[in-house]
Amino acid sequence: MTGTFTMAPVIDVAQARKEAEPVQREVVFDIKGLTVTYGRLTAISDVDLEVYRNVITAVIGPSGCGKSTFIRCLNRMNDLVPGARIDGRIMYHDEDLYGPGVDPVEVRRRIGMVFQKANPFPKSIYDNVAWGPRVLGMKKDLDERVEKALHDAALWDDVKDRLKKNALALSGGQQQRLCIARAIAVEPDVLLLDEPASALDPIATSAIEELMHELKRDYTLVIVTHNMQQAARVADLTAFFSLEVDDSRRTGVLVEYDLTEKIFTNPSDKRTEDYVTGRFG
Amino acid sequence: MSRYRRRRIVNRAMEGVATVAAMLAVGVLAIVVVSVALRGAGALSWEFFTKSQALFGQPGGGIANAIVGTVLLVTLAAAMALPVGVLTAVYLTEFAPRRVAVPIQVVLDVLAGLPTIVLGIFVYALFVIGHTQSGLAGAFALAIIMLPLVARATQEVLLLVPATLREASLALGVRRWRTVLGIILPSSVGGILTGTVLAVARAAGETAPLLFTSSIFANTVQTDVTKALPNIPVLIFTYSEQADPALHEQAWAAALVLMAFVLVASVAAKALLARSRRKLAG
Amino acid sequence: MRTSFQEELDVLESTLQEEGALVLRALRGALNALEQRDEELADEVIAFDDDVDRRYLEIEERIPSLLARQTPVATDLRLVLAILHVNLHLERMADYCVTIAKLAKLAPEVDPPARLIEGFEEMGSRCEEMIRVALDSLRDRNLEGAESLVELDELVDRANRRVVHHLLELGADPELREYGLRMVVISRALERIGDHAVDIGEQTAYLLTAEFREFTDASHPTPREA
User: From B281, which residue of chain A is nearest by alpha-carbon distance?
Assistant: First the structure.
């Protein structure tokens, strides 16, 4: 640069700028043709999706579109429902999740779940977090493990002086964070969250959303939410499921799956547009 | 008269009838308690509780040996019935598929309604014929009586445990049986204890089975379970057949003791259940 | 709470301030190129407009995404809307600087009279001051600072009228007419830069008071003070 003029200071904020959405990320779940039926009812049909590492993926859609069914396939919780049949293929890190010889219990250890209504065990706060590792053979340095899990769940400061108190005495938002701590204490790879904040007030909800931003550094998160705005705030990628009605038979299908930004500024499918603008569904 | 007035009168009448019926029920219990207390209180004394039966014809004596025997019988019966009852309930609620669970449930219900005298004869035929009476045989009969009670109470508490707790544990990657052991049973302890206490109260007063298996006993304290054990219900029965009015009074006193035990046990059981319900609900 | 949202807002605002700093650089460069008749400098100013445009586009693209994803309300919403408008004003200012630079490149037929250069320098440095005040008032959320821009703009307008007056005198000489016209355009460009700075002040006032007021209205001019 030549010239004899004085240069006004230019602030360099390249560090603070967020990186552009990376294109090449490791695939955690590769889902092809997933169809789930309960008896004669088809809950979801022919879903193709890829879930990427260290990214928050949201699943949105109207009630009954199969969001919870979908997410429960990922940790084989649907196995517990009598009459549930899963067709199609779910590859988890290049292994067939439903392959012969795959132990569903082991699957659930690597893929944890947080539920809609906080469900801490009727034990002390410490025991809630420590029980899983203890039972699964991770007995070493249990105190540190519990502390780390509570830290990562942004609950440590609230409870560090009352670890022996009953977990059910905590507020709803704290109980939910305790459930998150409990889930991450066993060091899963993936965390599935089924409407984790729908039973919480706005402040507690905001706390959970902040937490998810932190958690995605270490875990891969998939969240089901009926609150579109939450998906918009929190998720990097969003999958929109909707209901297809085929002579009085309703089936859930995946309509669109893209960057959250795209889904909420310029969706490709009209059904998506109708849903996110609140015109339909 | 207007329809409205007639409805009011009918309503009041029904209320009155219901109240009277409730009073009757309470009244029956009150009459039983009061008459037993009145007739038996006289024989209550320190000696009554600490001395064994007097020799034939001798005055005084107590029911100490019967108390010890009943305690032994009931403890043994509980030791047999509790594990089987709890595990049966666990199997029914946690593991059994529907096709298997329903018949087992039916069997338990039938067992609960079995006439105890039939049980007595059965155990008599099984264990006493060809051998002697024994406390073990008596306890076994009592255990069969207790089993469906414990199982049913356990089932009820297990069903109280919310499905979400099971889900939470399974979602952690914990095996089914470990979930039962670590989460579900500990939450149910209160209810299981309640069921056991109620079953014990019931068993302590069962007479028919013991008539066949543990009724021929000496008037000293007996702790050998391979022999017949003295016990309160049979004692009441035998004393009431004697001519001696002092023995009659002792029979009433023994009945009072038994009744008091049942009353206390029932109240304690209810308190336990309430406490465990509070714990589960946080 | 909502730390990533706050970070996004902060980045947006700092990008805007960056863009503002670049506009200041462009203005100073254009003025120097004009006053020193430096063609190379003028070319640089024209080339550097790309830097401004890049930031302009970046902000333009980020805002719809931010609105859709974070649904800002209250102060946050006003901030985003203010950034959107200020972005446009900065880009227009930068375009005017390019205009000045392009005109400065055309070889002047005569030595520019000293009064003209002084006039342009006066207008230019007033504009620089206004831009700084506008950007600082936005950054510091300073309402008074924003409102003071009106008076500063008055000074620029007066300087503009003086320059036009000089140029009218030049117009008497036919060989200088084309030159004179070009200078009028430059003067106009500087005056417009001042107006855009006032607009930035209006956006700051909107952000702080939630009321949109025009500080001065071209169709209802305040009576001119002598």
Answer: A168
pLDDT digits (tens, 9 = 90+) for B28-79: 989 988 988 888 888 788 777 877 777 766 666 778 888 888 888 999 999 9
Is residue C194 a contact partner of residue C156, using CB atoms and an 8 Å limit?
A: yes
A-C C-beta contacts closer than 8 Å: 76
Of B173, B182, B282, the CB nearest to A109: B173
A249-259 and A220-224 beta bridge pairing: unpaired
Whether residue C147 is contained in a domain is answered as yes
Residue B84, exposed/middle/buried by CB under 10 A (0-12, 13-18, 19+)? middle
Nearest-10 Cα torsion for B190, B192, B198, B201: -100
Q: What does each C-alpha distance from A202 to A22, B48, B77, B115, C69 come to in angstroms? A: 31, 69, 56, 61, 17
Identify the domain containing residue C84 by its residue range.
3-209
- If you compute the radius of gyration of chain B from its CA atoms, what whole number of angstroms results? 23
Domains of chain A by residue range = 27-276
Asked if residue C191 belongs to a domain, the reply is: yes
Measured CA to CA, the distance from residue B159 to residue B188 in angstroms comes to 9
Phi/psi region, residue A194 (left: phi>0; alpha: psi -120 to 50; beta: rest), is beta
Neighbours of B, requiring at least 3 CB pairs below 8 Å, are A
- Chain A (159-218) residues lying within 8 Å, Cβ to Cβ, of chain B: 166-169, 179, 182-183, 186
How many whole angstroms separate alpha carbon C29 and alpha carbon C220? 35
Q: Is C202 contained in some domain?
A: yes
- The complex scores an ipTM of 0.84
Residues written for chain B: 282
Do B and C count as touching (3 or more CB pairs closer than 8 A)? no
Other chains touching A, judged by 3 or more CB pairs under 8 Å = B, C
> What global pTM score does this model have?
0.79
* Interface contact flag, A3 C41, Cβ < 8 Å: yes
Half-sphere exposure (Cβ direction) of A106: Cα atoms closer than 13 Å: 8
pLDDT at A140 exceeding the cut of 50: yes
Beta bridge partners of A257: A239
Query: At CA C37, angle to CA C34 and CA C38, rounded to 5?
Result: 100
CB contact under 8 A, C69 and A11: no
**Mean pLDDT, rounded, for B109-131:** 90
User: Residue B85 in contact with residue B146, Cβ under 8 Å?
Assistant: yes
Number of separate domains in chain C? 1
Q: What is the CATH number of the domain that holds C77?
A: 1.20.58.220
- The 10s digit of each residue's pLDDT in B224-258 is 888 888 888 988 898 888 888 888 888 888 888 88
Q: Is B90 exposed, middle or buried (0-12, 13-18, 19+ CB in 10 A)?
A: buried
Q: Which domains does chain B have, with CATH numbers?
A: 46-281 (1.10.3720.10)
Q: pLDDT for A194-207, tens place per residue?
A: 999 988 999 999 99
Q: A121 vs B171: CB contact, 8 Å cut-off?
A: no
Min Cα–Cα distance to chain B from A137, Å: 11
According to the model, what pLDDT value does residue C225 have? 46
Residue C218 lies in a domain: no
- Domain A27-276's class? alpha beta
Minimum CA–CA partner of B179 in chain A: A135
